[in-house]
Design brief:
By secondary structure, the chain is an all-alpha fold. It has two helices and no strands.
Length: 48
């Protein structure tokens, strides 16, 4: 009868962006994460 707030938010998020936009966001997040951890790793290796 009534949609839960979680279901409503998920439906609104799907309507706000396309599948390709969501994919590009996840690729950007993954790339930024890899660069961040690689930078931290190299910084620690060079410091010691």
């Amino acid at each position: 009868m009534f949609d839960s707030l979680d279901e409503t938010l998920k439906n609104d998020a799907k309507k706000a962006s396309s599948a390709s936009e969501r994919t590009m966001v996840w690729i950007a997040v993954a790339t930024a994460s890899v660069l961040l951890f690689a930078g931290l790793y190299l910084g620690v290796r060079l410091a010691s």
